[in-house]
């Protein structure tokens, strides 16, 4: 089953020329197109399927500063400020609410990790604070909730994945961008060693700059042009309930469950420790780069082989021609199947922890493919060897909340404006020049 998703209108005719062609209509591409168009650039937003239909509508919707990698904290701060103004700017409710995120635990080790994070983040004004056992039990009064403490981030929250990318794409359109769905970009048009445009399934668009915000497909796209982009995905399952009584206003992480209260009064539920690492040709290609992350996250992964080995963004596709259908057209929307085996046990845990939710009904379940970088932070960057190409991808399971900020950062860099935050941590070169990537942050 697919998640709910608001429809976006497409423009019929492709422009002959734009300043910036944006590949990918997820939250990143839509936010970048919106920022670019508002700053006066001529933009085409090109999406092989539907706006928001891949990761950007399949996620939990958390807009989270808590437990972020230090390198992302300035950008998430910028993004949270942008979220705050988007409803007024666009005239549409994106569901953004600072309803808070709450983490509780029975593990002293986990508590110490959160404490270290809160101390590290003190200068970033995230508003997070540690909770005593009594506070944690009062705020998350679950049966069996013998919490020894927790952490609360009252200024974090959630937005609605069904609306966010579509609202941004529509707003970009009103600001002058054109939006093209069912319009895959087969490749870059290179002229004299630099980007001269894109070749889409409906024809060429001349563009001095191309921003690739292709999510899980970005590595394959880059490889076709000889650019290595170590990127790997995991399959994750999530489900939502129909409206049910309130047991928490925002997001809650316990050792047994992750739930988030939705705008419609239902809950988004995820089972802990059940992301699935599927072995794929691309995964094997970049296995060395991902080994430290794999070791750090091993306990939260199951490993196996699935259809993604032969179909999807990490399968082998060779050097496709730009004059016939490309792999992108063969997968308009990459929708990995949910692991239904997790749903009934998670519902039983939910009802066990919160008797008020015993009668809750599962409304939909779906799968999502989370694209990651070896160090767990994205690339928002030029690519030195190919002038005119920018990348904004690899958001490593937390690109929704940071999306408006990341799109805005990419737009500022493309237009040569002073960026709101330092883009250095997101440099592409770090992945290929032997830089020490450090340890991936918490998820
Ligand atoms: C189950 C799950 C839970 C998550 N929970 C959270 C959360 O709570 N908070 C959070 O911040 N993040 C979360 N994330 C991560 C977040 O969803 C992603 O980081 C974010 O949506 C990435 O946005 P994107 O625009 O880069 O990618 P996508 O949304 O995947 O968009 C990329 C788009 O590019 C298009 N495309 C690719 N190649 C081409 C091409 N050649 N031509 C045209 N179009 C192309 C694709 O069709 C796709 O629509 C979660 C993800 C999942 C799957």
Could you explain the architecture of this structure?
The two termini are 26 Å apart. The strands form four sheets. Strands 1, 2, 8, 9, 10, 11, 19 and 20 form an eight-stranded mixed beta sheet that branches. Strands 5-6-4-13-14-15-12-18 form an eight-stranded mixed beta sheet, with helices on both faces. A two-stranded antiparallel ribbon has the order 3-7. Helix content is 26%, strand content 23%. It has helices spanning 27-38, 55-58, 73-90, 108-120, 133-139, 164-174, 218-223, 281-285, 287-297, 327-330, 343-353, 403-414, and strands at 17-23, 43-46, 62-63, 101-105, 129-131, 149-153, 157-158, 178-180, 185-191, 194-200, 203-212, 232-241, 251-253, 258-261, 267-270, 275-278, 301-304, 362-372, 379-382, 389-393. The chain is built from twelve helices and 20 strands. α1 (27-38) packs parallel to α6 and α3 (73-90) packs across α12 (403-414). The longest helix has 18 residues, at 73-90. The radius of gyration is 21 Å and the shape is globular. The chain has a single domain, classed as FAD/NAD(P)-binding domain (3-Layer(bba) Sandwich). It has 443 residues and is α/β, with parallel strands linked by helices. Flavin-adenine dinucleotide binds next to α1, α2, β12 and β18.
